[in-house]
Amino acid sequence: MRRLPGDAKELASRPAVSVHKSAPILSAAEKIASHRVRGLVVIKGSGDALLEGILLATDLVNYLGGGDYFQIVENRHRDSIYSALRKEVVATIMNRHPIAVSVSDDLDTILRIMVGEGIGFLPVLYDDGTLHGVITERNILGRIADIPFDKKVGDYMTATIVGVDPEAPLKEAMRSMVTYGFRRLPVISSSTGEIKGVITAKDIVAYFGEHEAFKNAPSGKVSEAISIPVYMVMSPEVYTIDEKASVADAARRMLELGVDSLIVVDGGEAKGIITERDVLVASVVEGER
Q1: Which spans in 46-200 are helix H?
Q2: What is the pLDDT of residues 17-44, one digit of tens each?
Q3: Which residues have a Cβ under 8 Å from the Cβ of 130 and sit 6 or more positions away?
Q4: Euclidean distance between CA atoms 51 and 45, whole angstroms
Q5: By CB atoms within 10 Å of each CB, which of 28, 77, 194, 226 scores lowest?
Q6: What range(s) does the CBS domain occupy (predicted)?
Q7: Of 80, 109, 144, which closes a domain?
């Protein structure tokens, strides 16, 4: 079995972007937007850095219209965008019991946890419970990009593409993300089949965190803010890779472009999508052979 070098202390991103559980939801959205991170660590106080939970961009997508948390917005805040963002606090929707790793855990252990648990955001803790940093799939991608993989992108891609039309309401994209557990969706024209862009959970959180949502809700309702078409929030850049390319090629291309997924093509036709998670899965599977 292949062993990969590195441990959690070395791999972690520091300092982790943090928020207090009593902070308003809007503050969390602003931090995710300004730092372009996929999640925040929730810490107790400002000095001891004791972990109390995590809040991911997907949790905010759930709350703001994509999932069951939206009932809080509808029932408690009467769909008011101002009340829902400024009066509700992080503690309401944060994950209070996140999986974490120790600073001494090695890369193989971290990989197995991420792949086995289906998570991509791991707080890294010292033995006393204080926070050292966070590890995401991106931190690991750089370590495994130079490892030769015999397998091709087509072997590990997701062949079924769950997309959304550029003219569809933003709420539709949000619901698909929560329903299928995806952080990003290709934006595909239903009339031509052309891929127009990609929309991510971070794009949606940025829409609220950068206050654009307020401009699109003259009635002051969240439901109005998420009724705009997807194309107004999506990223128009579409990055591809051939299905016959190696998994290592995909990892390197993601790192070079600063993206977390690639559309897989064959002769110009979209065949699937490969993500950072898929690359990690390939690393675990191939490493055990």
Answers
A1: 57-61, 70-76, 81-86, 107-117, 137-144, 153-156, 170-180
A2: 999 999 999 999 999 999 999 999 999 8
A3: 48, 49, 50, 51
A4: 10
A5: 194
A6: 12-70, 94-151, 157-214, 234-289
A7: 144
Integer Rg of the chain from CA: 19
In a domain, 1, yes or no: no
Range of the domain at 55: 8-144
Question: What domain count does the chain have?
Answer: 2
pTM of the model: 0.93
Same domain, 140 and 168: no
Answer yes or no: is 2 within a domain. no
Instruction: Report yes or no: 122 and 138 within 8 Å, Cβ to Cβ.
Output: no
**Which of 116, 144, 172 is at the close of a domain?**
144
Q: What are phi and psi of 107, to 5 degrees?
A: -65, -40
CA-CA distance, 261 to 159, in Å (whole number)?
Answer: 13
Model confidence over 84-133: pLDDT tens digits?
999 999 999 999 999 999 999 999 899 999 999 999 999 999 998 899 99
The whole-angstrom separation of Cα 8 and Cα 184 is 26
> Would you say 177 and 58 are in contact if contact means Cβ atoms under 8 Å apart?
yes
Two tokens, residue 55: 């809040």
**Cβ distance 281 to 288 under 8 Å?**
no
